């Protein structure tokens, strides 16, 4: 299950799920999770700016791994798992957006 048809960039999103069962078999009627979504915010400070762009540019050409995965921001199939110019362009395009 996923969120589809939703444009929630630069937003705080709250998702509620019903009948949540934990690994011990306990059931909650409902549980909520709230998170901020900001495409291009590579360093997680709530603003897309030059610092985010610099991080992506410094990692261009690298395969995505546990240390640099945040710099792989584009959803282009050819770029998934690899940090490339499309990631840098997307961050630059989002410059100035914030939560």
Q: What is the structural class?
A: alpha+beta
Instruction: Using the alpha-carbon principal axes, give the shape.
Output: elongated
Helix content, binned percent: 10-25%
Q: Major sheet, described briefly?
A: 2 strands, antiparallel
The number of distinct helices, counting runs of at least 4 residues, comes to: 2
Count the E strands: 2
The succession of helices and strands, N to C, reads EEHH
Computed CA radius of gyration, to the nearest angstrom: 16 Å
- Summed up, the domain count is 1
Order of strands across the main sheet:
1-2
Task: Please state the average pLDDT score.
Answer: 90
- Uncertain runs: none
Oligomeric state, counting identical vs distinct chains: single chain
Strand content: 15-25%
Tell me the distance between the termini.
Answer: 25 Å
Short characterization:
The protein is of the alpha+beta class. The chain is 19% helix and 22% strand.
Secondary-structure map:
Blueprint: E1 11-21, E2 27-37, H1 50-59, H2 85-93
Antiparallel strand pairs: 1-2
Helix pairs in contact: 1-2
What does the model show?
The chain is of the alpha+beta class. It has one domain. It has helices at residues 50-59, 85-93; strands spanning 11-21, 27-37. A two-stranded antiparallel ribbon has the order 1-2. Strand 1 and strand 2 (27-37) form a beta hairpin. Helix 1 runs antiparallel to helix 2. The longest helix has 10 residues, at 50-59. The mean pLDDT is 90.
């Amino acid at each position: 299950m996923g969120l589809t048809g939703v444009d929630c960039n630069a937003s705080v999103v709250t998702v509620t799920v019903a009948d949540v069962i934990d690994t011990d078999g306990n059931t909650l009627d409902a549980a909520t999770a709230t998170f901020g979504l900001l495409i291009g915010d590579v360093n997680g400070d709530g603003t897309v700016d030059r610092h985010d762009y610099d991080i992506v540019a410094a990692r261009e050409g690298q395969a995505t791994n546990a240390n640099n995965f945040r710099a792989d921001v584009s959803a282009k199939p050819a770029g998934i798992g690899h940090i490339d110019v499309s990631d840098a362009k997307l961050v630059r395009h989002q410059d100035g957006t914030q939560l």
